[in-house]
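Thread: quick sanity check before group meeting

JM: Hey all, I'm pulling together slides for Thursday and realized we never actually wrote out the predicted structure for the chain we discussed last week. Dropping the sequence here so it's in one place. If anyone has concerns about the input, flag it before I start.
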Amino acid sequence: MIQTITESQEQLDHGTEEINENSQKITSKSAEVKEQTEKVLSDVGRVAACFGVLYILYIHYFPD
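JM (edit): ok, ran it. Output follows.
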């Protein structure tokens, strides 16, 4: 009985370690995704600004 409890506790400890390792992996991946998302949004903002400038120039030089 005590041996079974000890084995169960060891399995539980091992499972807890795996969960902690996976949690750290998820946290690091989350940080990477956040960084990449910020870069993409920055690039999208630049593209939108360029189109805005082009549109303003178009309206200025080709009024209807």
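AS: nice. DSSP finds one helix and no strands in the chain. Helices lie at 2-61.
JM: adding both to the slides.
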